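User: Hi! I have a protein structure encoded as tokens and I'd like to know what sequence might fold into it. I'm fairly new to this, so please keep things simple.
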């Protein structure tokens, strides 16, 4: 009884000690995390960020690295123009369409000061003016070209928002001009920027520092020069560029989206309602700090073959697709790395010629079945146009091999026909020789018989050969048996 009581007390004491230890560990862990958050807060406070809300997100993994009031609804500004370009690119079906022109009507002319009524602008120029120059009037004209009117285009923009699964974004016009009926958040804007960077046309535009648009009439034309709206371009050494627009209310503040590559990882920064003159400095500080604390769980290395792309009309029709950069994944602390899955997607309809570095697919990284990041798959060699068989995916090398095989087959067939013909002639010659030999032998026999007087109808001497058979038979048949 006593032993049983002691064992129970000891068990209770052990449980109490373990509970106290767990509480201490939890407290220590909490204090460490709080201290870390406090240090981060102090550092960010020292940056004097003017933006009402901001976010830095890893475009490679979708991890939110830094944020402040990222869920606060704000005027979209430049976010609308970025989505404008995405919707336009979704509707443009061929490179030739960039050469189509759009006329500036009286209503379109009233929406800005860049173009005047009666001028015409190419679609490709409008797109560059939107992405590089951040021109709002160009955004309205482009919307008119794509959907026929602003209402239809805005509807397409909001459908695109739904496809991106964004719940806190809504658009009321194609350009981002101030409207109480539209809004977005820094968090949603970062996702839109991440999706936009999957368009090669947008990525390329963000690297340009200037663009020139030609507005023309029947009688003359004029050049309109735009400088890049992104203050980060050329300032931040790893900057990819971005898009900025100044809000109508308040007049001196801007919405800004940009991206940068650091240590093989892509970062997206969004500054909402930020002081226009301090955007570049603030974005640089946030990007620098975010790159030091972002999670880097590597999923795939750079420069690795992830698949093969089919190239129609190329000198080579099957080319390896290499990962352009490293691929990373971010799994929340409560998650498991088993949630990470990957998928290699090779684009259809790839046609020659292709420059080295052309994007031919994506290496997609999913966490819990949700797309979190992509790595571009590119070619490492230039692919020139091939011979006509390449249009049905037969490369020049294979064409040479097939032509060689066909030539050999043809030569073999001709050789077989030649041999057969020769054998036939030999058989005919042999037959003729046999006939001739038989004729000669028969002639010899006939000559010999003639010489010996051996003929089928010749006379036979009785003393030599006896009675002829015909005589004997005639005598036998002509005898009367009654007279025997």
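Assistant: Happy to help. Inverse folding works backwards from shape to sequence: for each of the 484 positions I chose a residue that suits the local structure. Here it is:
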């Amino acid at each position: 009884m006593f032993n049983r009581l002691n064992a129970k007390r000891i068990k209770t004491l052990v449980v109490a000690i373990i509970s106290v230890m767990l509480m201490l560990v939890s407290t220590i862990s909490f204090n460490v995390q709080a201290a870390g958050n406090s240090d981060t807060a102090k550092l960010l406070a020292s940056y004097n960020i003017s933006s009402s809300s901001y976010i830095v997100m890893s475009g490679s993994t979708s991890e939110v690295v830094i944020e402040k009031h990222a869920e606060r609804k704000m005027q979209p500004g430049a976010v609308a123009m970025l989505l404008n370009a995405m919707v336009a690119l979704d509707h443009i079906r061929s490179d030739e369409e960039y050469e189509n022109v759009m006329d500036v009507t009286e209503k379109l002319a009233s929406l800005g000061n860049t173009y005047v009524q009666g001028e015409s602008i190419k679609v490709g120029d409008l797109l560059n003016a939107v992405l590089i120059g951040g021109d709002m009037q160009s955004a309205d004209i482009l919307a008119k070209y794509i959907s026929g009117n602003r209402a239809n285009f805005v509807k397409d923009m909001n459908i695109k928002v739904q496809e991106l699964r964004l719940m806190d974004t809504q658009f009321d016009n194609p350009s981002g001009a101030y409207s109480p009926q539209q809004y977005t958040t820094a968090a949603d804007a970062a996702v839109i920027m991440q999706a936009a960077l999957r368009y090669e046309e947008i990525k390329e535009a963000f690297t340009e520092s200037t663009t020139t648009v030609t507005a023309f009439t029947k009688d003359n034309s004029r050049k309109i020069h735009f400088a890049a709206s992104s203050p980060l371009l050329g300032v931040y050494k790893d900057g990819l560029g971005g898009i900025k627009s100044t809000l109508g209310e308040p007049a001196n503040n801007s919405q800004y989206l940009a991206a940068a590559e650091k240590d093989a990882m892509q970062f997206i920064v969004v500054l909402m309602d930020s002081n226009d003159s301090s955007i570049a400095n603030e974005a640089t500080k946030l990007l620098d700090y975010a790159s030091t604390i972002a999670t880097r769980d590597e999923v795939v290395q750079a420069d690795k073959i992830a698949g093969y792309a089919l190239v129609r009309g190329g000198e080579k029709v099957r080319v390896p697709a290499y990962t352009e950069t490293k691929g990373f994944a971010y799994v929340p602390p409560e998650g498991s790395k088993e949630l990470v899955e990957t998928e290699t997607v090779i684009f259809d309809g790839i046609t020659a010629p292709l420059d080295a570095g052309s994007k031919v697919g994506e290496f997609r990284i999913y966490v819990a079945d949700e797309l979190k990041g992509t790595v571009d798959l590119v070619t490492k060699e230039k692919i020139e146009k091939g011979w006509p068989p390449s249009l049905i995916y037969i490369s020049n090398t294979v064409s040479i091999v097939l032509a060689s095989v066909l030539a050999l087959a043809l030569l073999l067939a001709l050789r077989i026909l030649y041999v057969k013909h020769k054998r036939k002639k030999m058989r005919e010659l042999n037959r003729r020789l046999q006939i001739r030999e038989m004729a000669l032998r028969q002639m010899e026999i006939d000559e010999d018989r003639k010489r010996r007087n051996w003929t089928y109808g010749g006379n036979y001497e009785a003393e030599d050969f006896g009675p002829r058979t015909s005589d004997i038979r005639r005598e036998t048949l002509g005898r009367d048996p009654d007279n025997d």
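A useful reference point when you look it over: The radius of gyration is 46 Å. Feel free to ask if any position seems puzzling.
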